[in-house]
Amino acid sequence: MFYGYEYTFRSLYNLKIAIEECIKQYYTQKITTKLKGSTPVQYRINPY
Fold it and tell me: What Pfam families does the database record attribute to this sequence (predicted)?
């Protein structure tokens, strides 16, 4: 998980937080050509 980086989590809560942060980063920072060079959040705000 996390693109080749391995982490050891002390609890399920810490794992849950890490997964939520990963998903948040994916939707707010990942630029895709499918969405005309925008992040999914930017495209949702202004689809044109």
Answer: rve_2
Distance between CA 44 and CA 36 in Å, rounded?
Answer: 12
Calculated CA dihedral for residues 6, 10, 13, 17, nearest 10 degrees: -30
For every one of its 48 residues, what pLDDT tens digit does the chain have, with 9 covering 90 and above?
Answer: 456 667 788 999 999 999 999 888 887 878 777 777 888 888 888 877
DSSP sequence for 1-48 = --TT-----SSHHHHHHHHHHHHHHHHHH--BTTTTTB-HHHHHH---
Structure tokens at 5: 């980086």
Does the pTM surpass 0.70? The reply is no
